[in-house]
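Good morning C.,

I know you're traveling, so I'll keep this short. The sequence:
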Amino acid sequence: MSAPAAASQYTKENPFPARITENRLLNKPGSAKETRHFVVSLKGSDLSYKAGDSLGVFPTNRASEVGEIIDRLHATGDELVSPAMLKLPAPITLREALSHRLALAGPTAKIVNTLFAKATDAGEKARLEALLKPEAKEQLTAFLDDREYLDLLAEFPSAKLTPQELVDHMRKLMPRLYSIASSAKLHPSEIHLTVAVVRYQTNNRERHGVCSTFMADRVIVNETPTPVFVSNSHFGPPENGATDCIMVGPGTGIAPFRAFVQDRVASGATGRNWLFFGDQKHATDFLYQEEWEKYLAEGKLSKLDLAWSRDQGVKVYVQDKMRANAAELWSWIKGGAGFFVCGDAKRMAKDVDQALHDIIAEQGGMSIEQAQEYVKQMKKDKRYQRDVY
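The C-alpha cells, ready to paste straight into the viewer:
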C-alpha cells in the first residue's frame, strides 16, 4: 500500500490563492444554458485530489452591488465594522466586509423587524407591519425569497441603518463546492470544473450566482487570485478496477464522471463504463461531446445513453433511458456493477432512485420490499453512491 498523502498546508481556513487558467463556454450558440469549463492551476501549492472530490471556491461579491449598498447607507465604505458572526480579531472596513466576507442575499425576518422599528415613512411602516403579522408568514417568506439586502434598502429608504446595524443582520459569505471534473492521474497540477453560470431575474432585478459569475465574469484568466481548497469526498469510482461502473450525471452532474472515466482509463481499469447523460438539446448542450465519442470509439466507454428534454414533443430524462435499458442495467447490477449518481437532489436524484428500485424489482423478480433491501445492501457495499446537491 502507498503511504497516505500528507495533509496540505492549504485548507478551508487557509485557502490557496490559485489562478484560473482557462474559462470556456461548453454550450454551443443557441443554447438556453451557460455552462463553463474552468481549469484551476494548483502550481505552487501542495494540494492533491482524487476522483470524486470537490473544490471549494471563495468568491468575491460584485463591486456594483457593494457600491450600491454603500450608497444606500449614505456611507463611504471606509467605516469600520465588526460583523459578530465573523469573530474577527479587529474591525474591517464596510467595503471589505461586503466585498469578501458577507452574503448580500438571503435576508431573514430579523431585518424586516429592524426596518419596521426604524422606518419613519407611514406607508413603508404599514407595509412592513403587514408582513410581520403572524398570519402573514407565507407572504413574508415569499417576499424575502425574491429579495436581497439591497432591495430592502431601496424599498424602505426611510429606515436609516448604520453600517454596523446592516452587517449584524448578514450571514457569512460561504465558499461554494464544485465536483471536480478531472483526474489527478491525468492532470496532477490542475483541477477542472464544470459550472452552470446562474443568472436570473426576481423583483425586476438581475440576479447573479455569486460564485459562478465570479469565476465567469470577474476573474481575469491567469491573473486574479482565486482562494480554493480541496474537499475530500466519500464519493469515488470503484476501488477495484475490474468492477463495472454505471454513471448517471445529467447537466453539470457530468463533472465527476469525466474524472471517473479519466481515472479508470489512466489506471488501466478493466471494468466496463456506462454513462447516462442528459440536458436540453443534443445540438447545443452535449457537454464534452468529443471526449465521450472518442472514449466510445476506443472502447473505453462501453455504453453512452443520452436523454434530451427539448428535442422532441415528449421530454426524455435519464431515468427514462434507464427504464428503456432495464434488462441490461439489471444484468450489470446483478454482475456487481457500481451505480453512481450526480446532480440535482430535488428531482433528478429522486426519479433516478425510483427507477433503480423499479428496475431491480421488475427485472430481478422481487417484491418492492426485497428491492428496497437489495438497494440498501448496495449502499452498504458502496456500490450505490450519490453526489447530489
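Safe travels,
E.
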